[in-house]
Amino acid sequence: MASGQNREILSEYKIGIVGRDQANSIYQAVHLGAMDAARELSQRYSIDVELIIATPDASQGSSQASLLPELFTDDTDGFIISPLADEAVAYPIEFALKLGKEVVFFESQLEGIEPMAAVLANEEEAGRMAAKAMLEKLPTRARVAILTSAAPSPQLEQRLAGVRATLGFRRIEKVVATEPNYHGAIRAIQRAQEEDRNDHIRGWIFLEDWPLLGMPALPWEPGRIPVVAIQSSPSAFIYTDRGYLEALIVHPYYEWGYTSMNTLVEKLHNNTTPEEATILTQPRVVDWRNLEAYRREWQTWFK
Prior knowledge:
- By secondary structure, this protein is of the alpha/beta class.
- The protein folds into 2 domains: 2-121 and 252-281 and 296-302, Rossmann fold (3-Layer(aba) Sandwich), CATH 3.40.50.2300; 137-245, Rossmann fold (3-Layer(aba) Sandwich).
- The protein is 39% helix and 21% strand.
- It has helices at residues 26-45, 64-73, 87-98, 123-135, 154-167, 182-195, 236-241, 253-270, 291-302; strands at residues 11-18, 47-53, 78-81, 102-107, 117-121, 143-149, 172-178, 201-206, 227-230, 247-250, 278-281, 284-286.
- The strands form 2 sheets. It has a 6-stranded parallel sheet with strand order 2-1-3-4-5-11, with helices on both faces. It has a 6-stranded mixed sheet with strand order 7-6-8-9-10-12, sandwiched between helices.
- Strand 1 (11-18), helix 1 and strand 2 form a beta-alpha-beta unit.
- Helix 1 runs parallel beside helix 8, helix 2 runs parallel beside helix 3 (87-98) and helix 4 (123-135) runs parallel beside helix 5 (154-167).
- The relative contact order is 0.16.
């Protein structure tokens, strides 16, 4: 009978969460992490935490800049956001801070704006992990190619720095720039392989998984050239299953949402701030030893 009684609600909080694009699967994991944290916090403190998902659907023309004002209209107490480097996004965030709203960044941050906390990925460590995983499969003195964007973000620059620090200059054959999409990446890889007439490239490190966002079209047979990728999409499972990939370096997407929500509610309800404003999350390696466990995590997130 006690479990059926209405519990007294001590406080109510309305929190928005804003990823970058609904089409990107990692934000489903982030949303679920935030929802689970909101549910646990509601039970722990006898409060009501309402989560408003405001991640834009780019295919329908919505954007962070267009959705942020709606969070103000909904009278949110704060919001969690992976901010794009765009003045149209920065302005409403600055306005929210002036209004006394609590803001938590995750995945990345904006220069010149200080949120209450930022839950960020250790991108340089991701680069180091990718290089170490490659060295385990790379023949002695063999060299690799590194795939990055033609207009690299600070996160990609940090990943590249980690790879370079671990591999050293002598183990890198070339850095290949691409348009940050599947077709551009496949073309860039094919071009680099055609130009490598002496077969100096004996492995590839993808700083982002653009070449893995469609059906396998890499210009070599599975297992012939080792590949390590830093992942942002579950489509990479096709490549691991077919033997193209030696390892994935993955970030804790679910933890981004869970930690961000926990941090924000602790501030709103208990006026507790983290000891460090920047909370750095650690990547991990996924290979044949833990691939199935990681696949089950994605299945849970999709549910």
